[in-house]
């Protein structure tokens, strides 16, 4: 990446959707060489008071002349109105079969996308709009947080820092009055090594050499971050600290929601900004299992936390299902993870599905029990099935080799699905639900489910074992995905 920032400009300060857009970047002697084989791509970020979001992107062959790179495209017809920012391009070069990618920074370019009926603006007006946005963002970042114990006109102003471990963040996350910053440093295993080394020596076994490679691995496996509550008003520093500790627990739940591991705090402190007096919490011993799933949108974690926390604080039932799913994603045992994911679906279906009504398959045919009577929502599996069907689950289409033949498996898809072939294997949503429920019951009653140790008199257990062993349609994975979708729906609708 070139550390020197190049100059750039656009042809006008505002556009309407569908209008032509031209960006020029002026190279210098230190710039990467542009060639006719280059392809240039860039992203335009929509600038909001809270944070920037991905707006739209382009990829095109640029016009290269006299050291300047000119990119011309049309603004997407569905582009949202607002202020946009471009501060860099990606240069893809294809020469003699090779592919090189170069990221090039240039001066920040702001522009406005406006409504067709709105008048154009000039550079001076654009500069004022950007200044106003910067002021509003500063106010947003420095917003005051007040605990319930602080009187409206009294209280102690504190800065509260909560140090966490167990979540790999790639960029700073900004919320109202709160920021989360990756610290780029992890834990050391030096003390653990010393304990083992001393013990081995005492046992007469020998010594253990300190290995820098293991140290580096341990550090990278314990990513740390800081939650900074910049201006908290509490009754005293202890009150401010307690409030932020409880609040940070919700942040940890949300950070771990889809990452397979819930981070934890290992140190926190509240500092009186006037006197410097501090209230601290002792160091804790958290553990990290791994959650290297990075968000596509750099501000996605902050957006989720900011929108969800007021809902979680106000809604105990929502907290229950979010915590339950976070625990499911953090669980290493797939059987117990299914039990917890199923619990999420069962809780939600219990609130939204009418009891004692018959259930039907996708074609409208009643689903029957062994006696030939209609299955109903009186039982948990029927309610969960109806809840999933009410929310129109997307079909799963997967391929696998069966007896040496490549087969397409379609879960919850009709025979007219474009992916279907004469040899396609169709599996209904009901079949996967009853298989998952059989696994759930085994785990709840026996502590585990094994596809090699099923009760052959139980058709649902036999089906579960068949799906796991002979198809890519694992009920455990499917239930997890249904639970994840359900949790996000609940958060969006709360």
Briefly summarize what is shown.
This protein is α+β, with helices and mostly antiparallel strands. 34% of the residues lie in helices and 28% in strands. The strands form three sheets. Strands 1, 2, 3, 4, 5, 6, 7, 8 and 9 form a nine-stranded mixed beta sheet that branches. Strands 10, 11, 12, 13, 14, 15 and 16 form a seven-stranded mixed beta sheet that branches. Strands 17-18-19 form a three-stranded mixed beta sheet.
Give the secondary structure arrangement, pairings included.
Blueprint: E1 2-10, E2 14-15, E3 20-26, E4 38-47, E5 52-60, E6 63-65, E7 68-74, E8 82-95, E9 98-113, H1 123-141, E10 145-146, E11 156-165, E12 173-175, E13 178-182, H2 190-202, H3 212-220, E14 224-234, H4 237-255, E15 264-272, E16 278-281, H5 300-314, H6 316-330, H7 334-352, H8 380-390, E17 396-402, E18 405-411, E19 425-427, H9 429-446, H10 459-470, H11 475-493
Parallel strand pairs: 1-9, 2-9, 10-14, 18-19
Antiparallel strand pairs: 1-3, 3-7, 4-5, 4-8, 6-7, 8-9, 11-14, 11-15, 12-13, 13-14, 15-16, 17-18
């Amino acid at each position: 990446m070139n550390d020197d920032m190049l100059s750039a400009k656009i042809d006008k300060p505002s556009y309407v959707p569908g209008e032509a857009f031209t960006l020029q970047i002026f190279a210098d002697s230190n710039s990467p060489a542009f060639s006719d084989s280059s392809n240039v791509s860039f992203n335009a970020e929509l600038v909001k008071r809270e944070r920037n979001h991905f707006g739209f992107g382009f990829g095109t062959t640029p016009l290269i002349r006299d050291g300047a790179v000119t990119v011309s495209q049309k603004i997407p017809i569905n582009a949202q109105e607002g202020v946009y920012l471009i501060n860099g391009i990606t240069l893809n070069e294809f020469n003699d079969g090779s592919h090189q990618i170069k990221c090039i920074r240039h001066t920040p370019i702001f522009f406005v996308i406006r409504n067709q009926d709105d008048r154009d603006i000039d550079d001076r007006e654009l500069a004022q709009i950007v200044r106003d946005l910067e002021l509003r963002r500063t106010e947003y970042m420095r917003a005051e947080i007040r605990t319930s114990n602080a009187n409206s006109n009294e209280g102690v102003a504190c800065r509260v820092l909560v140090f966490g471990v167990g979540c790999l963040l790639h960029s700073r996350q900004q919320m109202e009055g709160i920021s989360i910053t990756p610290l780029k440093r992890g834990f050391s295993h030096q003390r653990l090594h010393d304990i083992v080394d001393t013990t081995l020596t005492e046992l007469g076994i020998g010594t253990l050499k300190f290995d820098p490679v293991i140290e580096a691995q341990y550090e990278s496996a314990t990513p740390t971050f800081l939650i900074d509550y910049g201006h908290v008003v509490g009754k005293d520093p202890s009150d401010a600290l307690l409030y932020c500790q409880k609040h940070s627990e919700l942040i940890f739940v949300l950070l771990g929601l889809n990452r397979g591991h819930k981070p934890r705090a290992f140190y926190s402190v509240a500092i009186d900004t006037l006197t410097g007096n501090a209230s601290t919490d002792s160091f804790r011993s958290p553990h990290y299992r791994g959650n290297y799933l990075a968000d596509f949108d750099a501000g996605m974690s902050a957006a989720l936390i900011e929108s969800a926390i007021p809902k979680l604080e106000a809604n105990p039932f929502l907290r229950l299902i979010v915590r339950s799913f976070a625990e499911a994603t953090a669980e290493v045992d797939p059987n117990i993870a299914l039990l917890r994911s199923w619990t999420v679906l069962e809780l939600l279906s219990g609130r939204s599905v009418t009891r004692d009504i018959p259930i039907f398959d996708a074609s409208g045919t009643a689903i029957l029990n062994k006696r030939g009577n209609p299955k109903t929502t009186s039982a948990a599996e029927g309610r969960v099935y109806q809840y999933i069907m009410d929310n129109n689950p997307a079909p799963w289409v997967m391929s696998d080799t069966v007896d040496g033949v490549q087969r397409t498996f379609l879960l919850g898809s009709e025979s007219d699905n474009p992916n279907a072939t004469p040899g396609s294997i169709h599996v209904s949503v009901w079949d996967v639900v009853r298989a998952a429920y059989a696994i759930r019951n085994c785990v709840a009653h026996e502590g585990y489910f094994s596809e090699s140790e099923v009760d052959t008199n139980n058709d649902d257990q036999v089906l579960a074992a068949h799906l796991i062993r002979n198809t890519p349609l694992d009920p455990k994975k499917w239930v997890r995905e249904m639970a994840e979708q359900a949790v996000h729906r609940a958060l969006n609708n709360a």
